[in-house]
Amino acid sequence: MNVVGCSSTGFPCVTLHKKSPWDGKFISYVDSSWNNLRALRSSDCMGRILKNGGFGFSHTKSSPKIGPMQVLCMDYPRPELENTVSFLEAAKLSSSFRDCIRPTKPLEVVIAGAGLAGLSTAKYLADAGHKPILLEARDVLGGKIAAWKDKDGDWYETGLHIFFAAYPNIQNLFGELGINDRLQWKEHSMIFAMPSKPGEFSRFDFPDVLPAPFNGVWAILKNNEMLTWSEKLKFAIGLLPAMIGGQSYIEAQDSLSVTEWMKRQGVPDRVNDEVFIAMSKALNFINPDELSMQCILIALNRFLQEKHGSKMAFLDGNPPERLCMPIVDHIRSLGGQVQLNSRVQKIELNSDRTVKQFLLNNGSVITGDAYVFAAPVDILKLLLPEEWKEIPCFQKLNKLVGVPVINVHLWFDRKLKNTYDHLLFSRSPILSVYADMSVTCKEYYDPNRSMLELVFAPAEDWILRSDSDIIDATMKELAKLFPDEIAADQSKAKILKYHVVKTPRSVYKTVPNCEPCRPLQRSPIEGFYLSGDYTKQKYLASMEGAVLSGKLCARAIVQDYDTLNVRTLRGPSAQMFVT
């Protein structure tokens, strides 16, 4: 899908959308009396022409005779990632499963949870020649990226999911499945609403001609609306230790909240108000006074170290069908199994306290050569056998608690104009990020009506409130973002329908001093493994972290093949293995 969005002034551009008869892709025609520009979606040629022709700048240009001309918001070519260090490292890990020695007796590995972590674990075990049995409690794939179709055929999702170029394992996964074309890349920008100027936005535009970190530095220096030069300088000085100290410094900041780190480094409070509040809510759905500074520094490190790191893409449709099903098809093609409506009710143990079997809620049992728990950490804590609760590794899990989050979908009776074909940072006290999905996503495209998807966060005080309360609060905030188009009382744009998706326990809350509590994928129990973004990996609570955790879990099982194979032959051992 390729549509024309809107410039920072909010003026619309007339756009006609037709379907290409030869490939089903959208063609977008910008209809004007002065240029008759025609742009073809998903064309590298198109991307070069627009780049060289001077389109895609962040400011609106106007003709005194004709009226305002709009920025062309479009899908951009996939960035060149294949030669980056992180992409090559992720590719090497992926190939290690395909290239390893085939097992003489494949392991049957039972995996609980078909979110990205469980799907990743199963996918890479299948690549290594083993037989995963993937169990999902619900009737839908995806876990935290699940989505549902309503009676009208419209999809609503658990969250607003963005795929960064700085996600090397995710990007490798798309390539391995042959679905790179399902990511709709947007221009390399970050766009923030301006609360002091309702309806206006401020942009950080990353120039393609500069390498990292200079493209990021340029984007920050060129934006004079959110931070003054003095504030930028003090912020840069505050970040110097992280730039010099590298990963060891970043890890050491886990003991500090973002707010505490800022005070220690002499960073002005306005940097928090203008940047870090929005960034904290986007990363972990909480405010800077709660979030560990390590989380912010990891994100900044990836965004500044990699030229395309902060470049964003939207999936071209609903996650269960467009991302999860290709993984499932791959797993099944290699002999693995995927079962929905298979909720684990109890982890039953042998006499030596290793896992005997998973008992499902329908009374059936599933046995295997190894077991993986890939559901969220809060569910693991509920199902943890009494015999394991005194083990230090599992005791530390009490520090890891999922954060509540709410995803709101609003279908309006008209096409909203004051928006972009991009992710937008609302900078609202109760909203995090949002997007007009009727513009950004091919499957959700609608030329006549907007569908806004918004992340309502922090949500702790709202998770038990009624849907109508949440919608009323959301509309009050939207009236500030769309002052000419939306009123809280719906006297302007009217809501045709809405969906509110509440997740009481989402990703783990990345508060200070959590890092030592995150477990390795190989648990102290022989034959029992953990997978999930809360486990030890460098991308914290994210889709990338979930996929990487699955790969690391699969690698641990492959490495333990001989031990697991012998264990299956000999039966339960005389004692529990604890490290």
From TrEMBL:
Pathway the protein acts in: Carotenoid biosynthesis; lycopene biosynthesis
Domain Amine oxidase as annotated: residue spans: 116-557
Topology with respect to the bilayer: Peripheral membrane protein
Record keywords, A-Z: Carotenoid biosynthesis, Chloroplast, Chromoplast, Membrane, Oxidoreductase, Plastid, Transit peptide
Coiled coil feature spans: none
Keyword Plastid appears in the UniProt entry: yes
Catalysed conversion reaction: 2 a plastoquinone + 15-cis-phytoene = 9,9',15-tri-cis-zeta-carotene + 2 a plastoquinol
Subunit structure: Homotetramer.
Family indicated by similarity: Belongs to the carotenoid/retinoid oxidoreductase family.
Record-given protein name: Phytoene dehydrogenase
